Amino acid sequence: RLANKCLELFEAMHLFGATKDQIEIVIHRESIVHSMVEFADSSVLAQLAPPNMALPIGMALNYPDKMDYHLPRQDFKNLNLSFAEPDKATFTTLQLLDICADQMENFPIVFNAAKEILVSAFLANKIQFIDIFEGLEKIIHTTKYVSVDSFEQILEIDRVAREKVKGFMV
User: Fold this and answer.
1) pLDDT at 140
2) Which residues, in sequence order, are CB contacts of 53 under 8 Å at separation 6+?
3) Angle between the 3-16 and 129-141 helix axes, to the nearest 10 degrees?
4) Distance of CA 104 to the CA centre of its chain
5) I want to staple 113 with a disulfide (CB 3.0 to 4.6 A). Which of 18, 34, 91, 158 is the partner?
6) What's the chain's average pLDDT?
């Protein structure tokens, strides 16, 4: 349901000083394009690889060094680069993205903490898959905006969010 796309948007906003209006989430079902950046001159630089997260994760962990991850090579003769706008009625988590991106202080911290607890509960067969997204919606809609001024405050916001979402699952 694209919860990770929300986290990636928060990361891009934070790391690159971008606004949510400068970032576009698109659906690429082939999962070959892992990132794209459009420049002022309209050119686009994209990172393409077979649909396997080993490469993007390895690149992040080993930057600036390049390593052989023994992945299959891209078959450019059969490459399909189709993109679509996500349907926010289907991918309801993206509706939360607007709330969190507009209030970047504590909301991404709460979103991430809640997602981790909810996914763990799902993997432990304690909740249903749909409960992940319902839990995210509930915690975001019951969270108040708080300015974040310190690392200690981040840890406290994370702790409180985890406890709050656990309370939803009782």
Assistant:
1) 92
2) none
3) 50
4) 14
5) 158
6) 88
Residue whose token pair is 């709460």: 110
The token pair at 87 is: 């349907």
Round to whole Å and give the CA distance between 49 and 34: 7
Q: pLDDT tens-digit profile of 55-73?
A: 878 888 998 998 888 888 8
131 CB-side CA count, 13 A: 18
- Return the C-alpha torsion angle 116, 119, 122, 126, nearest 10: 10
Determine the pLDDT at residue 170: 65
Residues 6+ apart with CB under 8 A from 56: 34, 35, 47, 49
Measured in residues, the chain has a length of 170
Amino acid, res. 109: I
In this structure, what token pair is assigned to residue 115?
A: 């997602």
Query: With a threshold of 0.90, does the pTM exceed it?
Result: no
Per DSSP, 143 falls in state: P
The type of residue at 21 is D
